[in-house]
Design goal:
The structure is a single chain. With 317 residues, the chain is mainly alpha-helical. It has one domain. The chain is 76% helix and 0% strand. It has 16 helices and no strands. Helix 2 packs parallel to helix 5, helix 4 packs across helix 8 and helix 5 packs antiparallel against helix 6. The two termini are 38 Å apart. The relative contact order is 0.13.
């Protein structure tokens, strides 16, 4: 429905050529903006609504005292949510506002774009079940380990407190009527979206340009001729890219079919999903550049290690 509206607006009303770069950029921007903001409004509302049954002190004890187990829970939650990297950020902010520890929230932020139901279904159809299971297990491990490492580094000072602390006075432990719970969820969605809407649009705009103007053939060629360094190069090449699950998996399939090793192709896919340039732009509203660099660095190292591991295990898969 959203896709049809974008088609109607861009290609029929504005009369742009579907094969042109400008038409592709505008279509991508409109479609992704409507999809992301709609999804965010619903999900943040639901999380805020549920939070009224979870008093803040209880939520802190549950997520804050579980050690690595809390990272596992957050990573699993990320795996079952249908978000790309840009859509995950407002949920990440909502978790921070609920005073969930920073490292735990990063386990969600890392895993959410790497794994989701849609991607798993497409991967199972294209790569087969064994490779898909290896990918899912690797994504969960990256989220748990990456979040745990960031949590141990005590980096809360790098957060932009104005948006994290906004409207926290509404989160007191008290009795709620059903109408008050609904109001809380609506206010939560409005607060988060109001604070980041411009950054989301900028990120989507950058992603639209990259998606339609970065030549994929050049990337394919670069990864095929780099030998043992193909995994880190594939990871670095994936960072500037941006795309939906529907676009990410076919790219990895093409790379694999053209002779790129399995781990290398999947490392590119993971980096493209979890470390996009639009995501970095949006995260700047929430945290300082130092924390963004640490997050990208730790996640990139984990993806590279996973790529080499999957290359070694490829014959058995």
């Amino acid at each position: 429905m959203i896709h049809d509206f974008a088609d109607l607006l861009v290609y029929r009303w504005l009369g742009l050529d579907p094969e042109s770069g400008l038409g592709g950029v505008l279509h991508f921007f409109i479609y992704d903006s409507l999809k992301i903001f709609g999804l965010l409004a619903v999900m943040i509302f639901l999380i805020g609504f549920v939070r009224t049954w979870l008093p803040q002190d209880r939520l802190q004890r549950w997520m804050g005292s579980g050690g690595v187990w809390a990272n596992v829970i957050a990573a699993a939650f990320g795996a079952i949510t249908p978000f790309c990297s840009c859509s995950s950020i407002p949920i990440f902010i909502t978790m921070l506002k609920a005073r969930i520890p920073l490292g735990v929230t990063f386990s969600f932020l890392i895993t959410s774009p790497i794994i989701n139901e849609y991607l798993v279904v497409i991967m199972a159809a294209e790569f087969g079940v064994p490779i898909t299971l290896a990918y899912v297990g690797s994504g969960l491990l990256i989220g748990v380990v990456g979040g745990a490492v960031i949590g141990r580094m005590k980096l809360e000072r790098f957060l932009e407190r104005d948006i994290i602390d906004a409207a926290v006075e509404r989160d007191e432990n008290r009795r709620y009527t059903f109408a008050a719970r609904v109001r809380f969820g609506i206010d939560e969605a409005l607060d988060v979206i109001k604070g980041i809407w411009l950054w989301v649009l900028v990120g989507i705009g950058v992603g639209a340009v990259i998606h339609n103007y970065v030549p994929q053939e050049t990337i394919h060629g670069a990864m095929q001729v780099t030998g043992v360094f193909s995994v880190p190069i594939a990871t670095l090449l994936g960072v500037p890219m941006y795309g939906s699950c529907a676009a990410i998996v076919p790219i990895a399939v093409v790379l694999f079919e053209k002779g790129v090793p399995l781990g290398t192709a999947l490392a590119f896919m993971m980096a493209m999903a979890a470390l996009s340039l639009p995501e970095a732009i949006m995260l700047r509203r929430v945290m300082r550049l130092g924390l963004i660099a640490i997050f990208f660095g730790i996640t990139a190292v984990a993806i590279i290690a996973t790529g080499y591991l999957l290359n070694a295990l490829a014959p058995a898969l």
